[in-house]
Give the backbone structure.
Amino acid sequence: MPPTAADLSRELTLGPLVDHHAFALTGREEPLVWARQTVRRVLLTGRIDQGRIDDAVLVVIELLTNAIRHAGGPVCLTLDLYEKGVIVGVVDRGRDTTAIPTAPRNLLAELQDEASTTSGGADLPESGRGLFLINAFANGWGVEPAHEGKVVTAAFCLTGSAA
């Protein structure tokens, strides 16, 4: 079973929750542009270094893109600021949490295998790298059922990139 946001907070020892933000995304025009600006603005108010802010923005965009493409669209974006980090979450309308691999450690190898069977290994596919990026840039991530569908979360420690 994948970790929950609470599990990530404990495992990464992010400390106590300092601030919580929840933003409705249903019907929002240009949610990716809005999310880039909003996540950056909210995280700049904390003690998070610029590299980690950039990582969090990238991951939020990947999570939102996945929600748009595969799960009926995003419902809500959450930003939980902790004493020593942040957990971002995207709630979408998808209910199938089993469609998301819980151990993405081998995603790049799987993509390379797929590319070599379909194109002789010349090119990696244009899509399908979102979870690899999330795994590479976040210190941890998970998925769990939510009232509206499911929530995919990613955690970031205060300083130092995971990539």
Summary: The longest helix spans residues 50-70. Strands lie at 17-24, 74-82, 85-92, 140-145, 150-157.
